[in-house]
Amino acid sequence: MNIKTKNLSVDIGRKNIIHDVSIDVEKHEFVGIVGPNGSGKSTLLKSVYRVLRPSAGMIEIDGKLQNEISLKESAKKLGVLTQSSDLSFDFTVEEVVMMGRTPHKKLMEPDSDEDYEIARDSLKKVGMEDLTDREFNTLSGGERQRVLIARALTGQPKALILDEPTNHLDIHYQISLLEIVSSLGIEVFSAMHDLNLAATYCTKIYMMKKGQIVSCGTPKEVFVPEMLRDVFGVNAEISENRENGRINIIYTGI
Amino acid sequence: MKKKKNFPLSIVLIVMSVLLILSLISAITFGPVPIKTMDVAKVICYKIFGIQTAQASELLNGPTMEIIWNIRLPRVLMAVVVGAGLSLSGVVMQAVVRNPLANPYVLGISSGASLGATAGILLGMFSWFGALGISVGAFAGALLTSMFVFAIAFSGKGRGNTIKLLLAGMAVNAICSAFTNFIIYIAKDAEGIRSVSFWTMGGLTSSSWNLLPILFVVTTVMIVFFLTQFRVLNVLLVGEESAMTLGINVAKVRKFYLVLTSCVTAVVVAASGTIGFVGLIVPHIVRMIVGSDHKRVLPISLLGGSIFLIWCDVLARMIMYNSEIPIGIITSMIGGPFFIYLMLTKSYGFGGE
Lengths: 254, 353
Fold this sequence. Notes:
- Chain A: Pfam families: ABC_tran (PF00005).
- Chain A: Keywords: ATP-binding, Nucleotide-binding, Transport.
- Chain A: Residues 3-235 form the ABC transporter domain.
- Chain A: This is ABC transporter ATP-binding protein.
- The structure holds 2 protein chains of 2 kinds.
- Chain A is 31% helix and 29% strand.
- Chain A is of the alpha/beta class.
- Chain A has one domain: P-loop containing nucleotide triphosphate hydrolases (Rossmann fold, 3-Layer(aba) Sandwich), CATH 3.40.50.300.
- Chain A has helices at 41-48, 71-77, 93-98, 113-125, 141-154, 171-183, 195-201, 219-222, 225-232; strands spanning 3-12, 15-25, 30-34, 56-61, 64-65, 78-81, 159-163, 187-191, 204-209, 212-217, 235-240, 247-253.
- Chain A is globular and about 55 Å long.
- In chain A, helix 4 (113-125) packs across helix 5 (141-154).
- Helices cover 73% and strands 0% of the residues of chain B.
- Chain B has helices at 9-29, 37-49, 57-61, 63-96, 109-123, 133-154, 162-186, 190-201, 212-227, 230-236, 240-245, 250-272, 278-290, 294-318, 327-345.
């Protein structure tokens, strides 16, 4: 399923946050957005998953204009992992994950065995199947993150939108999570913090600075020392693995 | 993960419904004039189904019949409806503002209603409505304050959010209480002040067949509506952004629910005064026992709230000989310690971490 934005601008209050952003996610790509804090990564994602309304430009989801399909319809197609994940009431892990079925449910429709099956599979994928009856609020940050990924998968989305999915995760689960989402065979559009992980897993990178896209292409094309210097203010060397052609960024200072 | 077969919701609901009916019948037997359980059953059977059992004609024309049918039954039914109504608004309000401290009165409804009732009792306003004047005043006060609170929270600069809503509720609450106290302070009417204080602590004394139908219709319609909304209520608790990614238009749903719960609360308060604590603790007690899923919380809270209020009203009638105390005193006296007991013995975290 493809996700497109064209000349997208978003303002919050009177402040312009992103400007003239055009992106294209298609053909099972794992697309990463990178950029320093406040460069507009989350804002771009939020406008795609409809928490923020664009002030100009357009967004296309699965070939349809976003504002022409219902919130429920887009929720069925997009699995979303947001950055904030606080719960103000006690829910069990199972209950949280089952909420992922919400967009598929009619008014009084009960949860079916199939729904529970899907939820169990999602929890298995993130390695949380043993904690189904735990209270969500008693989990560690990393465990919560994995449960929320499972909730996004439970909606059986046609594409995933992830806002810094590896937050709070230890290195094992960072890699495991990225392996899981890249093995799903659906499009993934994700804000990435760790440039080396982005270089390893993303097939395409958009680099943002001050609300605009400044570079786009394969990790090898985007992660070049001059750009890293210009956008992130760091000095770095790039080394390339001869066997798989992947690049590795070595930071040398600021 | 197996399907949660270990929670038999339908059995719990059936058991609670039976308890509710038994409570209803036995509550009628309590009062200054003791009445036999069988007589209650006979009168209700006769009145509702037209079944006249043998040797019942004496009963059916005597004073016992009058007490059962015209005094106690409407009162107990009122307890059922008010208990369910307050629990409903409590559950929904806590979900809508995503705050475990919320209760049906959090938007200033109680103080608005009190101001209306006080103006009715002490200043003689709304007297064109005759005996219903005080209820009309309370209803008007309740609706006006909640509309006022919405207006403050959702207009003005910046986005409306729930904290703003709660603070607006507090501000309006303070204003209305100040005016109520002002009226009480300048009034020279001792009897009137006593009725105001009785009213603000809540009571089912004004129960009659006249008030019941409107109360019943409003509450039932809202209950039926919200029972269909359990998924949305659950998702509201996970926060605005997550809810939107699950396909729920939070801003729209929140306003709609607030208007509906305000209507229920206003009608209930107008009929029974501001009975405290029920709408706060019943939902929490139920969550402590069955978890936060609204599929379970909502129906169980409704039945639990009704049963709780029936028995609180029995105590309010029976605790003092020949006199009646406001039911709000009982709900807090009994509910408070029970609530603390559960807090100490259950692992429920009230949404904290």
